[in-house]
TrEMBL record:
PANTHER family: PROTEIN ARGININE METHYLTRANSFERASE NDUFAF7, MITOCHONDRIAL (PTHR12049)
Subcellular location, record wording: Mitochondrion
Keyword Methyltransferase: yes
Protein name, UniProt field: Class I SAM-dependent methyltransferase
Membrane-spanning intervals of the chain: none
Amino acid sequence: MTKGNPSSLPLPDAAAVRASAALCRLIADEIDGAGGWIPFSRFMELALYAPGLGYYSGGAHKFGPGGDFVTAPELTPLFARTLAAQAAQLLAESSPEIIEAGAGSGALAAELLLALESRDALPERYRILELSGELRQRQEETLRSRAPHLASRVEWLERLPQRCSGLVLGNEVLDAMPVALVAWQAEGIFERGVRLSEAGGFILADRPAKGALLAAAARLPVRAPYLSEIGLAARAWVAEWGRILERGALLLLDYGFPRHEYYLPERDCGTLMCHHRHHSHDDPLWLPGLSDITAHVDFTSIAEAGFDAGLDVLGYTGQAQFLLNCGITEALAQLQSDGERAYLAAAKDVGKLISPAEMGELFKVIALGRGIETPLLGFSRGDRVVTL
Ligand SMILES: C[S@@+](CC[C@H](N)C(=O)[O-])C[C@H]1O[C@@H](n2cnc3c(N)ncnc32)[C@H](O)[C@@H]1O
């Protein structure tokens, strides 16, 4: 992954530029309709999820080597095989059902089902909650090709269910939820939004923050001038699960920090980042719909949202510790019989998942649940306690 400004990005093709122009018209209409300004969180929501045009709901390839970024389940099936150990324990303690939110290409669903089958712990149903019709199609194809005999267990949800029990899983979902951009200034706290420039493009513009956002921003111990994000949508989403989940757990993996590390004085430009074809850049207004826009997760706020909604915080740790506790090295060792070359390639991928310099420490795992009494495998051992 290389980082730069948009002028160093690979040029998109004409079809992609046309799709972005159509999305820009839609966003501009919404800005006009709203009186000349929309919050950044709404801009991000449209840029990622506007039907047929947003980054996740349009035709961009997104995942894997030919896409914009590689996630853990895309990197190696060992990620899913290792998660299966934790999933099996939770299903046995609650109900044999999994709901995966934001299933991407469907790689995690396919490999997790196969791994649970080999553990004799298949869920009766595997439901996928996906905002993007394009991704749903891709998930169907992945399941048909990688786990055809299990594909009939998979259903897609249009919206959150009324009630559920079992495991609710989300890998890199919270970071893809819209965030508010907040500017703390000597004059007060402002919400950053988007308006049209004289030339008809988009520019960022601040307005005094109000309501729930102002209350959340005022509670943070930051000193002006400071710019960062507040993920109210992710908090609301977790709180909804607190209402829905009868017995079981929410297992969320993502990159981020506890609050005391998130809002450090030196992180005064926030964590917002964009990805386009394995380049990262920092301009969310660049050709909307063609880049992923993400922000790191404030895990303290996620834990609080769950706790306030009646869920127990069952565990929180770094991804490396979680995967080691769930047996990733044992899963890797099983590949030794596949030949040296395959084993070494898999070992390199596992290294990426657990190395502190790569995904091992920046990525965290949090489990929030109800009615789960047994300590969870993934959080059973830790050389260091990761505190919220
Ligand atoms: C970065 S991708 C991760 C995909 C996949 N989990 C993986 O690890 O490869 C983010 C995913 O989250 C989904 N997403 C974002 N907000 C969501 C929500 N509120 N409900 C369900 N899915 C959501 C997106 O549509 C997309 O599939």
